[in-house]
Amino acid sequence: MNATVIELSLFDLMTVYALLMLSVVLSQLLEAQQGKQIFWAGLRMFVQLLAVGYILHFIFALNSPLPIIFIVVLMAVFAVQTIAARVKDKMPHFYKIVGFAILFGCGSMTFLLCTLVVGLKPWYDPQYLIPLAGMIIGNSMTGVSLAAERLAAEFRERSEEIETTLCLGGTTQNAAAPAVRSAFQAAMIPTVNAMAAMGLVFLPGMMTGQILSGTEPLTAVRYQIAIMCVITTSVALTTFLILKLGYRSYFTSFQSLKGL
Predict the structure, then answer these.
(1) Distance of alpha carbon 18 from the chain centroid
(2) Local confidence band at 179 (pLDDT 50, 70, 90 cut-offs)
(3) Of all helices (H) and strands (E), which one includes residue 108?
(4) Residues whose CB falls within 8 Å of the CB of residue 172, separated by 6 or more in sequence, listed in order
(5) Which has the closest alpha carbon to 257: 162, 191, 171?
């Protein structure tokens, strides 16, 4: 297979950005009032990705794990901030719980993928570690947002049911179980649907990118299967941690429900 990559010039990028402006025009025609949002979001993407490209070009030349770990941790911090912006009704100790879940859940899955599956030597090879960590963290964000949002909504809607269970002698775990179960199910839906449709309905971005760069299709498929399995496990583990730690934050030390 031809491994030559067709380079895209800045003029090519400006051309596709001009095509993006068609979305602005269509929004204006429908009076959807999203033209400015599309324009500025596209401009931010353009600038941010170019900046990241130059930063990664520098990072890839380093032979030390510390700056690479710093970049991954920084990605996790920005992920927590993005999740916080999405979730309107936040659980108590939101940042502490979500931050721990993202760092432990996504971090452990990234480490296992890079060491046990891909077999990186060294394990912090930035050419693999940073993109893989980005995919795992980025895909886990949706599940985390859904879990946190749904858990807060379930506790608000089921407050009387939860208090009744506690009054009848039930534990906080028993009282919170239906809310936790519902939040976990909601968080997993997008990832499960993506797995079910992958291959027949759409070709995922990682696999498409590898094929465009000249990688053999079967090799690209193996990588996609590996990353999707790890992403699903990361979403499940991160969501599990958030829900198990999060539901406890709704109760006082006297095993009663806090005021919502």
Answers:
(1) 29
(2) very high
(3) helix 107-112
(4) 166, 247, 248, 251, 255
(5) 162
Alpha helices in 3-34 (DSSP H): 10-29
Name the pTM for this structure.
0.81
User: For residue 218, is pLDDT > 80?
Assistant: yes
With helix as H, strand as E and coil as C, how does the chain read? CCCCCCCCCHHHHHHHHHHHHHHHHHHHHCCCCCHHHHHHHHHHHHHHHHHHHHHHHHHCCCCCHHHHHHHHHHHHHHHHHHHHHHCCCCCCCHHHHHHHHHHHHHHHHHHHHHHHHCCCCCCCCHHHHHHHHHHHHHHHHHHHHHHHHHHHHHHHHCHHHHHHHHHCCCCHHHHHHHHHHHHHHHHHHHHHHHHHHECCCECCHHHHHHHHCCCCHHHHHHHHHHHHHHHHHHHHHHHHHHHHHHHHCCECCCCCECCC
DSSP secondary-structure letter at 114?
I
In terms of Cβ atoms closer than 10 Å to its own Cβ (0-12, 13-18, 19+), residue 149 is buried
- Which tokens belong to 106? 């996504």
pLDDT of 77:
94
Question: 């990682």: which residue's tokens?
Answer: 206
pLDDT grade, residue 4 (50/70/90)?
low
Read off the amino acid at residue 13: L
Pair 105, 241: CB distance under 8 Å: yes
Radius of gyration of the chain (CA): 22
> What number of other Cβ atoms are within 10 A of residue 34's Cβ?
15
pLDDT score of 3 more than 70: no
